[in-house]
Amino acid sequence: MNLVAQTIVDGLVLGGIYALAAVGFSLIFGVLHVINLSHGVLVLIGAYLALVFSQTLHVDPLLTIPLVMVVLFAIGYVYQRFLIQYTVGRTPLGSMLLTFGVALMLQNVMIWLFSPDMKNITPTYAFASFHLAGLAFDAVRVSALVASLVLLCCLAFLLKFSALGRVIRATAQQTLAARLCGVNVRHVYALTFAVSAAFAGAAGIVIGIILPFSPADEALWTLNAFVVVVLGGVGSPAGALLGGLLLGIANTLTAQYVGPAFPNVTMFLLLVLLLLVRPNGLLGNAFSASR
Amino acid sequence: MRRASLPAVVVVLACVIVLAAGPLVLPPFYVRVGQLMLYSAGLALAWTILGGFAGYASFGHAAFIGVGAFAAGLVELQLSGLPPALQLAIGLVAGALACAVLSAAVAYPILRLRGTFFAIAMLGVSHVCAELNNNIDFFQGSLGLNFPPVAPVSVEPETFFYELYLAAGLVVLTIAWWIQRSRFGAGLLSIREDEDTARMLGVPTERYKRMAFVVSAVLTGLLGVIYAHSLGYITTDSVYRDDTNLDLIVYSMLGGMGTLFGPVVGAFVLVFVIQVVLARLLDFHLFATGLLLVIIVLAAPGGILGLVRDFWARRRRDAAMPAE
Description:
The complex is a heterodimer of chains A (291) and B (324).
Chain A (H helix, E strand, L loop, with lengths): L1 H31 L6 H19 L7 H18 L9 H23 L14 E4 L2 E4 H23 L1 H11 L1 H6 L4 H26 L7 H15 L4 H21 L5 H15 L14
Helix pairs in contact in A: 1-5, 1-8, 1-9, 1-10, 2-3, 2-4, 2-8, 2-9, 3-8, 5-6, 5-8, 6-8, 9-10, 10-11
Chain B lengths: L5 H20 L2 H26 L8 H16 L6 H27 L4 H21 L9 E2 L10 H25 L1 H11 L1 H6 L4 H27 L1 E2 L1 H4 L2 H14 L6 H16 L7 H15 L3 H18 L4
Antiparallel strand pairs in B: 1-2
């Protein structure tokens, strides 16, 4: 009983982080209809930037989140405006291949800069843990989870209540109508991409403090993001959270009760099953209301 | 069914004869590069029956390479006394059967998905097959499987497999050609252009998609069996490769999506560039491949054949309307 509860709690903690890592991917998919295969690279750039910043500035890695998000916001804006914009509205394969090519290039650059070895960010409270109701919690994992949830809430508020969020939602629902109302669609696309890159970077920091990472991990995080989005639904932080939690629980339960080598099998079986039963994810497409 | 144009047949046959004579003059390194080029071209053609003609771009065809190879290997393990040529033949049949069964089983659920979702679900199929193969002891995926040497003693193994790949590639090309010119091929094309309209107009889309999927899978599996023999020893990692999954799409993109000869051109060019031009730049390998992808997408969305076609169209237009 205790083991079951502990496994589920571990899965939920992991799931919160998956959700944060996927939410940017989900936003781009929902608004630009682009599968961003370089999402995992953006996540890793966030992790490496946090490593560099926290070492040079001697601060807690979680405090570097605003700085890293600003840097990735800029990178995302430029990346969308000068590369991805050319494939928006064409075949999905074009943008997939373009972002995959960029992912390969950036992965190679990261190998040159940081070596292909595993790295990790170690905060001062790395080995602290506490017990609650008979279950063990790592301080690191809990702070990572809290950071994820806070950031997801921020994004949800941004999309729901700010002017930028309104424009993003309008563009996603009816691009033409938004344009007729005076929305600069290219600019909004680039801003959306920038926001999503910033959240990918923040996710990278959170991942960096709980798991070791290396440049080769980018494909894993892209794939995870895709699965989370398909499970939960496109475009909304709530969908990403639901999908992430599901994936996290499925992963830890499989690793515990079926075998440590099988999480991918259950992950993809779950994915294919869900695609067949609910092709739009559990919460549906957040932007498709007026389509 | 339309008839094949005579000049095209002659050109293809001439190319095949030149290619077949290749090992006589080329040094061994280039024979091996040639092997890889022919193998990739065969795979690209098998992929394009589904991905190019019907527009269902699969991101997981390595599943069929692996399943074909392992099915053949496990069957041949039981037949160690037989002559090698017979073993290869039985292995090919076993691999084709396994792929046919797997693809027919997977086709029903997975072909209901479209576009990106189909592509990624196929990636899932490939990963699930690989992990099951690796983790269930019966399949010997992590231990590895040995294949009997099938090349006759009088022929160099490199030359033998080169010619075998050429023959297999020619078989796939003929089948793809035949499909493209048949009623079936026209049906696949209508699925690519507008599946719902095609169904409304009475094209049996479900059956056509499933047939294309199975044909594509079986041909991929046959090439996988030959590939496994040319390696001599395989593990899960050497046949279920994600770079194969990706390369199959890239070949078609580079050559020209949906055309018959585009995938062949794309496979030849990309394999040559990676194996010969970039072979000495191992550190830049990922970067250069990525850059190539970006350039293809931005500069030549129609692939090499698309560029050639545009060039001819412009020539013809200029000839028709001379400048002032």
